[in-house]
Design brief:
By secondary structure, the protein is α/β, with parallel strands linked by helices. It has one domain: Alpha-Beta Barrel (TIM Barrel). The chain contains nine helices and twelve strands. The strands form three sheets. Strands 1-2-3-4-6-8-9-12 form an eight-stranded parallel β-barrel. A two-stranded antiparallel sheet has the order 5-7. Strands 10-11 form a two-stranded antiparallel ribbon. Helix 1 packs parallel to helix 2 and helix 4 packs across helix 5. The radius of gyration is 18 Å and the shape is globular. The chain starts with 7 loop residues before the first strand and ends with a helix. Bound molecules: manganese (II) ion (2 copies) and zinc ion. The site of one manganese (II) ion has 4 residues, from loops.
Length: 284
Amino acid sequence: MKVKDILLGAHTSISGGLYKAIEEGEQIGCTAIQIFTKSSRSWFTSKLTLKEIEKFKETQKKSNIKIIVAHTSYLINLGSPNKDTEKKSINSLQQELTRCELLNIPYLVLHPGAHLKSGEELCLKKIAENLDLILKESTGKTMILLENTAGQGTNIGYKFEHLKQIRDMAKEKNKLGVCLDTCHVFSSGYDISSPEGYEKVITEFKKIIGLKNLKVIHLNDSKTELNSKKDRHENIGKGKIPLKIFNLIMNDKRLFKIPKILETPVNNFLEYKPELDLLKSMVK
Ligand code: MN
Ligand code: MN
Ligand code: ZN
């Protein structure tokens, strides 16, 4: 495997303009990045201008960033029992999907949702139905990726079966993929602390979801222990997931073509650089 062919990067910032995230990624040697296409703390935003779209595409063309992934706002909950929140979530996700299509972003990562004590089964069903509503109207250039979660609070998506169930219930399956977050895998109780454990978890994922549906990997270490059901990211090598597991991931031929994105805690994007360099140095 060649280091230069690896799709590796980090979540970078769009403050000052969408294209700025590409420039940040370029500065620290990314070949892939993840962005919010709008503020992650607001429901809606104004329409993209032609100028913004052109600048974004031009900046990517001149860069080494081969793939750009988007992440949705944290407010969206397609499985909410609150009608108003559900409606707002649908409209907000619709707007985010349109933005991705305009920016030629192939993947939009979404947290499946939280049932807020209304029950998991109902929540899963609502999510599948609402995804269909949104996806049947879309051009299909952008896939929505369901991210596995740590299982904090009433969040669903902490089991591979949840992600499978949503995809199985949805009609627009071909526009629905999966994003796997290593911190969430571990904190939701999948023991990837040994090479044997790692292989077991990959095998289980293959069996339940299938590797062809895995489109993005979030590389994060975990501040909290196995099965803690907490979502606390840590820098690679500083948390509870052994460094040798990240080494296995970086050298796993089955995962070679899948973009790998850091969402680790940094004060400044330049702090991703040593982590990226460490991961690159592992590639044999
Ligand atoms: Mn996420
Ligand atoms: Mn993540
Ligand atoms: Zn997380």
